[in-house]
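Side project, low priority. Logging it here so it doesn't get lost.
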Amino acid sequence: MSIHGQTKLKRHQRIYVNRGMNLGAVKAIGFDMDHTLAAYDRAAFEDLAFRETLKKFVAAGYPEELLELKFDPTVLIRGLLVDMERGNILKVDGHKYVKIAFHGRKRLTKDLRHKLYNAESYKAAELLSVDTFFALSEVQLYTELVDYMNRNPDRIQRTFREVYADLRRFIDLSHADGSIKQEVLANPAKYIRKDKYLAPMLAGLAESGKNLFLLTNSGWEYTNAVMSYLLDEPHGDFAHWRDYFEHVIVGAGKPSFFRGSQPFYEVMTDSGLLKLHSGPLLPGHVYHGGNAILYQRLAGCSGDQILFVGDHIYADIVRSKDTVNWRTLLIVEELAQELPKLEELKDKLDAVKTKLAERELLDEELNHVASRISLNTKQAEKAIKRDPKKAHYLQKETQKLTAKQASLAQELDALDKTIRAMMEEREAAVHPVWGELMKVGLEKSRFAEQVTAYACLYTASVTNMRFYSPFKRFTAAHDTLPHELS
């Protein structure tokens, strides 16, 4: 588990620290399953969810030609907001300023975007946040439906919000009737990626004395099938996947698990039936439901003695942090692809920063010239009667300054266009539409603000934990305020 010379880790292998943590003081480590321990082939899984949900639309009376819509895994990223009322998809910075907006497949102009969202305050909490990978296929389907409705205004007699309500209902139905999960279980190799480091990582943590537990919203049958597939080969003393975990909790109902009062039920693993549980949680047993307060009491540890690892910024991270003060490790899969790209683009970012410094100096010079023009104009107006010669001199000087002002303004406009083109080229190298997950231009994205506020640690893959000792003391970089910068 430990490694020497940790600075040699590649950027996508590192664990990043927002809040310092002594892992040695952590007694229990909990893991979410989907997109945490179980990494999905996103394109295959989201295409499946997209197609199964479309079938539900058509079965409910929507136009059959909707079946021709195609899933495109490159259209959306996490961290976006959905305006269900207007049918718009937004990328927002940490100050709630909308920087990019689409209506269907059509990008909104800057003026329209400003009028709808930035001219007056809007309530981000009322918009849908695209926090999970499961939401990507859902929101892309919504995007395609909005686009279809705009191209065929008489074919679907429903509002954008009503269409989204149907979408949510059909997705829930697809999960409830097993049409998605049964397909995954029938062909797990197509949809789930195995990680050869998962077993040794879990074994190392367990052998170091940490109590591991699994906490997932998935039901027992699906959880057992997925975890059996991921950990199907014995590893040392761990003959079965359940041997890694002190407790297994399925059907947890996160985020309600962290603030609710639901009791635990024991799962009869041979039949799948549930029995109301009382007394301590027994090692090796499987439980359904429950709540965090009760878990802490029965497990004998609480608050910052527990580290929870998950991929859902709200259901896994925000709620566990806010409600029961668990320490948190957020899995941000996108970093595995983004960080190598950003490393390659470092020179381009440095070039942008150099141009921005040039722009600041040019802007200061332009403001200085504008101030002198204003001052000269006022002085010339006062001198025109009592000192015509001075007034004439000031007017001649103002003419020169005005010419210089025009030249500087033209230079500034050209520099702005250059910077904008450099930024767009750099962002497009990461994602052709939305750019970086954690940034909007050079500002933190709303997603990044949430990560900073609630995730003690974050990393690209759960198995990156293997690079660090179970007793590692993670130290955060010191916060720097603007006035502390040189």
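Brief comment: The chain has three domains: 6-40+193-339, 42-188, 345-436.
Revisit when time allows.
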